[in-house]
Batch of 2 targets.
Target 1
Amino acid sequence: MRAHDLAWVLWVATVSIVVGALVLGLANRPEVPLYEVTSTIIAPTFATLGASIVYRRPGNVMGWIFLAVGVLGGVQMFSGQYATVALAPDGPTLPGGALAAWFALLVQNWVGGCILFLVLLFPDGKLLSRRWRLLAWPMGTFIAVSLVISAVSPGPLTEFPSASNPLGIEGATLPEPMLAVGELVGAVCVVAVILSMILRFYFSRGEERLQLKWFTYATTVGISTPLLLSSLAPAAFEVLGRLLWTLGFLSIPVSAGVAILKYRLYDIDRIINRTLVYAPLTAMLVALYVGGVVGLQYAFRALTGSGSQLAIVASTLLIAALFNPMRRRVQNFIDHLFYRRQYDAAKTLEAFSAKLRDETDLEQLNADLLSTVRETMQPEHVSLWLCPDAGPKSDPAD
């Protein structure tokens, strides 16, 4: 069987397993919650991206890593749903509930290990250099040992407290100091993987840098959004938290797919720029709006003894009037801070265009053009050759 055929077989298996998990969810309750429906998108998305990369970039190991995450995610979801149904006190009688719960938690840890290697090897499936093998091999060994220890640790299962580990070995529980050391080593692995991506971005050029920008931008926005919402607006997080976490995890395969398959890759700088502009602009406008409404309502109550809808109208008009001036100021600040070279080049071209309309001296225009090219393009050498005027053409009929 060829590689891309195997990849699509694994994709079909992933989708089938996820559908089976949904059927099991319906067996335990009349309706499957919305967050579980959205969560089922994650595993097929990883598998779809993996199969696409294997088909179009067969030499890139990233495709197989994404496929592994997709298959394992589907298996974890099916095992978890099976365990939920089998261990429910009023559910149907199904054998092996504790074993399914144990397997679901074990596969969940496998997925975490695959994600670490996904980030470490992105985007070309290779380490940053041979020296990074000193990280990759110990990290793989640590993940394998952690999986074995969690597989044989006795006692209740974390997410299924009614079930105990069916394969637990008495005396296999590690003491607290060793568990603390294990957590510390795990944190070091995560930090080292992030450091690897930072160094890869620092030394990257051209297309690889754009790939890393896509991946970093999307995952940062996707993961940080639910974290910020949970801190700033807990009530809204209660309603949207599950959906936002689903979208956050989806940002990993989607952004990687855009980067590896190179679809609209060169739009990333514009997207980052717009995000840096409109995120603080939105926060400032919301603060002004809320502050305006509260302040005006307080003033109306002090003057008339009751509130007024004029506070909302006045605040809305104020926001509409301030939107464009504030947007321009934030845009200029972001350009100065993060895009200084492009900002200076744009200003130089704008000044040259204004001078071009009024300049009549050809020698001066020649000098201005060469100066503008040097400032914006920064070539090693620049010169301008003007074709001499050959005079009026003679009529062939003469």
Target 2
Amino acid sequence: MPDPMTPPQTPPLLFDAAALRQRRQRAQRLGPATFLLDRVTEDMTERLSAVLRDFAHAADIGTPCDALADAKAIRAGSATRHDLLGQSGEALNIEAGSLDLAVSLLALQFANDLPGVMAQVRRALKPDGLFLAALLGGDTLTELRQSFAAAEAEIEGGISPRVAPFGDLRDLGALLQRAGFALPVADVDRIVVRYDNAFALMQDLRRMAATNVLVQRRKSFLRRSTLLRMTQIYSERFADADGRIRATFDVVWLSGWAPHESQQKPLKPGSAQMRLEDAVKPKA
């Protein structure tokens, strides 16, 4: 058990919020690539349609662009937006027990304190309120990560962080339980996008504001020789028969409910009315 006199540890600062804000502004100037966000928004609508209720008060936690600007998109009477890149950082400042629904699309992968954000959402929900989020995780951009690492090791004799670390399904699902959500569910939707070459992929990443915003990223310009070697390695290892390359995006879906007495609960150990041995014993 943690010592109550020990102050809580500050989570490590992985992502540069100022850089992410600049990347999003650049994406708007270039013309944002929203195909991934559009797909996730459509999936969210389908998932919410399976919930047989309406939500009076909802909140959008950090979803980029204006994908959820209309409260009707989440079947809510009213909806507020809370930016994870605001002046208060990742402090949501939502009144406890004020929300029926909290949603977040393709934003939480950039949270420096994801457990803290989820705990704030759990606190903001009314009993039996729903949290539904989609974030990039798993093997997202694994091809790009491997190609950059191989190119830098070969050309520069070492590697630097080029692609953000992504949480895996099991760890992200465990965060739901850690934050106190009931009936937690985590699943992954793997989306494979094909490109003519790695340059086309990197252009899309710029227009998605998904380029490197790691605090520990190398601040100097990427060597041309390293970039060209990376594209060669990418094509050698991750191209289909027609020469086009693959890029993986793993969208991890998380859902959980604020606890309520009406929810189903697991049976207590030892409360079964029949022994397993009797259940599987062949009948005479």
